[in-house]
Amino acid sequence: MPISMYAASVPVLQQMLGSLSDLLTKAEAHASARKIEPGVLLQARLFPDMLPLSRQVEIACDFAKGIASRLAGQEVPVFEGGDASFADCHARINKVLALLGSVTPEQFDGSETRPVVIQPGTPRERAFTGQAYLLSYGLPQFFFHVTTAYAILRHNGLEVGKKDYMGRY
């Protein structure tokens, strides 16, 4: 039996957003224990030309809600505001987890061939089938930003490993 588009996306996104939330909780405790201003960690980067931790979280969330919404045939909701605190980051993740919990497997029926058109940061459009969007664009982008958030925290002394990255599965 082939895997459904729902099974290939929603549970994976939920697992990794849960992991990201847990990492942020550990990061907040790490900052408190070491008397590090939380904003310093949230603005930490791996390299000066890369986006900071708070934006990595925001973009990972944007990809998760975009994947679920587009494949379920819904409008992608807009969650305004930058994340200036760990509480803001957790609130954003929780909103996306709620969205993921609201979509049903039936909404994904036929989504592998559903047209998906995006404008990735440029006026130029990119068109995909749902399956190509999920496997070649959406999930790789999502994992890039979750992984980068993990790497920023690890680079800044958070004692975490693969088990923390993987989360609960």
Write structural notes for this entry.
With 169 residues, the chain is mainly alpha-helical. The protein has one domain: Up-down Bundle (Four Helix Bundle (Hemerythrin (Met), subunit A)), CATH 1.20.120. Helices cover 60% and strands 5% of the residues. It contains six helices and two strands, in the order ααααββαα. It has helices spanning 5-33, 38-42, 53-71, 86-102, 130-155, 162-166; strands at 115-118, 126-129. It has a two-stranded antiparallel sheet. It is globular.
Summarize this, please?
This protein has 169 residues and is mainly α. The chain is built from six helices and two strands, in the order H-H-H-H-E-E-H-H. It has a single domain, classed as Four Helix Bundle (Hemerythrin (Met), subunit A) (Up-down Bundle).
Give the strand order of the largest sheet, numbering strands 1, 2, ... along the chain: 1-2
The named CATH superfamily = dinb family like domain
CATH class: Mainly Alpha
Number of beta strands: 2
- Helix proportion range: 55-70%
Strand content: under 5%
Indicate the CATH topology.
Four Helix Bundle (Hemerythrin (Met), subunit A)
Structural class label: mainly alpha
Low-confidence segments: none
Q: Mean pLDDT, nearest integer? A: 95
Helix/strand order, N-terminal first = HHHHEEHH
**Termini separation (Å)?**
22 Å
Oligomer: single chain
CATH architecture: Up-down Bundle
**Sheet of most strands:** 2 strands, antiparallel
Please tell me how large the radius of gyration is: 16 Å
Number of helices: 6
